[in-house]
Specification:
Blueprint (H helix, E strand, L loop, with lengths): L2 H10 L7 H36 L5 E8 L2 H11 L5 H7 L4 E7 L2 H12 L5 E7 L12 E10 L4 E12 H16 L6 H29 L13 H18 L2
Parallel strand pairs: 2-5
Antiparallel strand pairs: 1-2, 3-4, 4-5
The structure holds ligand 0O2.
């Protein structure tokens, strides 16, 4: 029996005689896989961030947020959707257990950072929802992607699904404010507030557009722009001299 089947076997035995200790252990293992998947993605983003910080003129990634759904909230979703309470069904149907949110400076950075991640050979893109190109009716904008990343455990490799959200800082500001308002009014937000949120979303989109144009004018294409600095000029000069002397010696 493989691990997934063993886990499901335990979960399906839920009842008065269930071995709760086994279920707890299996649930912990299940959650850890998602945490590792999320960590893999976070590391990939950190590497891009560091590479840009050291080699390019500026870093397109403003900040990164990771979050793991709590077991309580997973169970609540299982109940709400009437899903089979097996780990297999949860894996197949609840795709936002591990989430990574990447806030970028400009809209073009959102797509560039997404492309850099999506083109990595160990990342499999399962689904993309472009709410920047097609904003939600309430004004929500972001680029969403569901990806699968392999996690190398001690005895096997498990593919883990991670939900990615890419957005600009302006989109992020809007979404977090909207989320707080929604939470405060327990989803019954007054119509005038909803209208103001739609207006604010348009203002944020206009700001993104203007700042993007300003940035393009001053920096051009960020991928091509190389940062000055790195090793001290003297070190670079000496390395160059060393190479030259080797080349010259070969022909003496
Ligand atoms: P949390 O706490 O951030 O995770 P589903 O994922 O199945 O529930 P759907 O519609 O298939 O729903 O997914 P979608 O549209 O890709 O959105 C999933 C997540 O995007 C949400 O997760 C939010 O984080 C974010 N999101 C989507 N629409 C909005 C919006 O109108 N306002 C804000 N502020 N965020 C939004 P959760 O589970 O709702 O919340």
């Amino acid at each position: 029996m493989d691990t997934a089947t063993t886990q499901d076997h335990h979960l399906n035995r839920l009842g008065p005689d269930s071995d709760l200790a086994h279920i707890r252990a299996d649930f912990t293992r299940f959650m850890m896989e998602y945490k590792f998947g999320m960590d893999e993605i976070e590391t990939k983003i950190m590497i891009l961030q560091e590479e840009f910080t050291h080699l390019h003129d500026y870093n397109p990634i403003e900040h990164v947020l990771t979050r793991l759904k709590t077991p309580e909230s997973i169970l609540e979703k299982v109940r709400r959707r009437g899903l089979d309470p097996s780990f297999e069904a949860i894996r197949d149907n609840i795709t936002d257990i591990a989430g990574v949110r990447v806030a970028c400076s400009f809209v073009r950075d959102v797509y560039s950072v997404y492309d850099m991640l999506a083109s990595q050979p160990d990342i499999e893109v399962l689904q993309v929802k472009d709410y920047i190109e097609n904003p939600k009716p309430n004004g929500y904008r972001s680029l969403h992607a569901l990806v699968r990343v392999p996690v190398h455990l001690s005895d096997r490799i498990v593919p883990v699904t991670v939900e990615l959200q890419f957005r600009t800082v302006a989109m992020d500001f809007w979404a977090s404010t909207e989320h707080k308002i929604f939470y405060k009014y327990r989803e019954a937000v007054p119509e005038d507030l909803l209208q103001q949120l739609r207006d604010a979303a348009q203002t944020a989109a206009d700001l993104d557009e203007r700042m993007g144009r300003l940035h393009l004018r001053t920096h051009g294409d960020f991928v091509g722009s190389r940062r000055e600095g790195g090793p001290a000029d003297e070190v670079v000069r000496q390395l160059h001299e060393l190479r030259e002397s080797r080349v010259n010696n070969r022909f003496v």
